[in-house]
Amino acid sequence: MKKIAIVTEDVCSLSEKEIRDFDIEIVKTKLYFPPLEKFPEKNIYQLMETTKEVPKTSAPSPGDYLKAYKNLLRNFEKILVITISSKLSGCFNAAFEGRELSDSPERIFLFDSWQAVAGQGLLVLRAAQLIKEGKEIEEIIRTLEKLKREIKIFGFLQTTYWAKRTGRLKSELAFAFWALRSLGVYPYFGIKEGKIGFSGFNLWTYSKEKAIFNQLKHARKKGKMVVGINFTTDFELALRLKEKIEKELESKVLFSSLVPPVVGVTSGPGTFIVGFYHF
């Protein structure tokens, strides 16, 4: 029997390759978006731009987590469940309820990542590396508790249209966003202690690419970084940034993947997110 399995949500935004290579069990969030069913070959964010429709999303049920637990407990001694921040979603509560329904709750360990998207993905990959090194689950959790406070996330919105439409952004904040953009100030959002909010400004640029790279250059002064990238419609930008981060900043990009829909339906097409920590 293997030692420790990892369960997390698709919010972690890892690619199929990372999920397969590290044998990570994914519990999927729910998505309802009829245009995607008609055109499954399309990028969801391209369809949002075209139709102006807002997809509906919801957290997994306790039963979804329970099903994952039952399957894994046949082959693993313990399960480490790394959820999206409990302050952003009901996933942690659903994972907890699923554990309580299990026949072996003492073998299931829950961890609130305080993160989402690239930040959550970086935590999951670090946990997978520690498992591969043979670390005990208690040591892994201690390491993750420290790391989740060190991971930085910053994201750039193309527009406030979707955040306003889904009720996640008040009109006065949307107005402030566009006023700053018109002055060459690019606001960005981040995650602090598990909550999302506007967290800073990149001055004197109208370019998303320059704004993102400026933030990374500033962070690089504290040391080399491990980086995760999330994009919506800017695949070519993601490729360019990956190359620049690895070449000019001498840092590691562990993955570059699509913003998961449960996050992207609020932030909208054009959203670009970077997560990192120093090593």
Explain what this protein looks like in three dimensions:
The chain contains twelve helices and twelve strands. The protein has helices spanning 16-21, 34-38, 44-51, 62-73, 91-101, 117-132, 137-150, 161-165, 171-182, 208-220, 235-248, 261-267, and strands spanning 2-9, 24-27, 30-32, 56-58, 76-83, 108-112, 152-156, 186-192, 195-202, 225-231, 252-258, 272-278. Strands 2-1-5-6 form a four-stranded parallel beta sheet, sandwiched between helices. The chain is globular. It starts with a strand and ends with a strand.
| Helix content range | 40-55%
The whole-angstrom Rg is 19 Å
Give the uncertain stretches in residue-range form.
none
Strand order across the biggest sheet? 2-1-5-6
Instruction: Tally the helices.
Output: 12
The general outline is: globular
Q: In CATH terms, what is the architecture of the largest domain?
A: 3-Layer(aba) Sandwich
Number of strands: 12
Question: Which key phrases capture this entry?
Answer:
279 residues, alpha/beta, 12 helices, 2 domains, four-stranded parallel beta sheet, Rossmann fold
